[in-house]
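Record 1 of the preview.
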Amino acid sequence: MVMHLIKLCVGVKEIDQLEASIQRETAARRAAGEPEVTVHVTRMMPSRKDEIEAGGSLYWVINGAVQCRSEIIALEQIQGEDGIKRCAIIMSPDVIRTSPSPKRPFQGWRYLKPEDAPRDLTGPGEGGAGLPDDLRARLMEIGAW
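->
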């Protein structure tokens, strides 16, 4: 069975900011001769690692709603310079926009069952994908989705 993760995208106000950050990281990795992936480090290693690595994604909460996801390639335990063990979430650099789904703030990451995950936006303009993120968020607030 596949399992996903969901996490707040702290400090990011729009999907475009997340995409730009990932592009910078990918370019730096390319220049260094490293694999073109994006890595997000979090404190806790999920106990359901095998299920997540079997096709799971990290769903990003931006401005109070799940708005996109990144496919997870692997979860690796790393140790920081401070000696604390952490989890490196290694993901594809592609950001896949999803149907907006409201989500209240929470700390850390949470598991997300596939049946509870928002669907991907597949067509141009579907779910407002062609709209500016702030307008899309406002439409979601008033119940357009």
